[in-house]
Amino acid sequence: xxxxxxCVWYDxxxxxxxxxxxxxxxxxxxxxxxxxxxxxPAGQQGDVxxxxxxxxxxxxxxxxxxxxxxxNEAFSFxxxxxxxxxxxxxxxxxxxxxxxxxxxxxxxxxxxVSWQITPRVLMEALSAGGPAAKRAFDAMMTMRKIxxxxxxxxRRG
Length: 157
What we know:
This protein is an alpha/beta fold. It is built from 5 helices and 8 strands.
């Protein structure tokens, strides 16, 4: 067991979400599934309560805790991509599976979990500082899904 595990609260679809993540992202899988040993406020004995899973090698558990806690952008998974094709693949998988687009490379999956699909070239441009970083930042601020070619062009000026 990992010393630090991210716990993600779901209403009741932790297993479905974990299976989607495992099918979508490399180095991702679904592990143990624990069922409730008794009734609880959000479910009944025998319902899926906790799902162990990994997303890109990061240990997580999904807790089916009920509808009282809602996701927001204060927590997100950030997935680093190498190409526009990889960026498109992950973005489209999330959005086309009942998710929704947001701004600046952010989107939400159908369970409300926020994702940042972030091309490496964007982070490199922002880390460089100076006018090139400002141009890349300004370009990013106009985007939903990040356009790698547009970020590279902005960085070059």
